[in-house]
Write a structure and sequence with these properties.
The complex is a heterodimer of chains A (298) and B (140). Chain A contains seven helices and eight strands. Chain B is built from three helices and eight strands. Classes of the chains: A alpha+beta (298), B alpha/beta (140).
Amino acid sequence: MKFFGAFSQYKALSDEQKSFISNAQKKFVKTPDELVKFFKPMAVFDKTCDEARAQLLNYVILFGILSFLGIFATAALAEDYSIIIAVELLMVLLTFVGIIIRWRLGKIDIHNNLREFVVPVVNLIGQDMEAGTKVSLDLDLRGKTLDSKLKDTRKDDPGWFSYPKVTTRIYDDPWFKLTGQLVDGSKLILNVDDQVTRLDKTYKGSSGKIKSKTKYKVKHEIMAGLALKHKKYAVAGENELSVLGDGLKYKDGDNRQLICLRDKIKTQDVDAHVDPQRCLALLGKIFMSVQPAAEKGS
Amino acid sequence: MENCNMKRGFFFLRDCDHPAHQSCCTCGKAFCNDHLRIKPGSNEPVCLDCLGKTMQQSPQNKANTASRDRYNDDYYYDDVWCYGYRHNYYSSYRPWYVGHTSDLQGSHFGENDIRVFEPSAEIDDMDAEAPDPEANVFDS
């Protein structure tokens, strides 16, 4: 029974961690070490919570089927009426208990991006920072389809009793923003912005029945930027940077050259997490395209 | 006393200044306590590089989380993941090395695996201030 473990892990969290889970939005200015220490128990809890919810769903389905079969058993085995009724009631009770526990766990569940993206990325960025250097992290894991994140609504309604009717809602969810300074003095910017399109379609089926369905299209846009010091890195020209392909933006300043790269991932799962490796690959590409300050031209 | 043999960092490799305490049961090199973990199932010290590699060699199938369960979440949400990940990452990336190439002797890295900064470009103006995300990145 994994839900016992999930509840005990939740109980062991500090008030600040519980508060973060319920608000799911916060701006941090801490060292990567402090952040990982803060997030790690929540990541472990979230994983157990997801496993417990999956396990409970199986139990609810099982007990639900047994309750349904119990109705027929009651009718067929009328002689052992009392035992069958007791077992039937137990199955119904277990089904409801399972549904309630699962719902309670769902209330304290946090988006998988925390454990699958935020923790690995913060941990890895921390490897390349001086001890004690703080990062600024702006997190918003409240959900992608909140009213406050709704940017546009379009309705395609052909009129009364005419189909299909389509409502398109577009949400913008910039949920991750990290800035910091790496060990070489470069300034780092990492942003993840999710754009969610929700399509609600009401249409007439082939049998003439009115049906509705909802579809999601999610676009994760990852932006990685590095402001590289002229003292450390030679200014990269258009030719050198062209290998970085689409999604490149660069700008040269007095002390630094800013190089930004974007990557887009499309999915139809609104709960899908972003792969941290896609984000780290962008940083790697930028670092591979530049040369040390004194080496260029030599 | 011998220094820790670990090259720490991901995009930038640096020497670890801490004194070594124990040897890794897999590679036999000496490491400090920060770069050692207990090997699951054997109770022996193993370095982050060796443990990370073992984790990365497990199946990458996302649906199969058994490999992660095997090593406990403590390892996945710990530095071990970074060390394991960099092992694969360096097949297409050459990390910067902040130090002298002579110090690479005895490490997993050769001169061809890394890139170095010119000595004149040493880090000289580090500041540990909390970054201001609103500030212009060209400011300093």
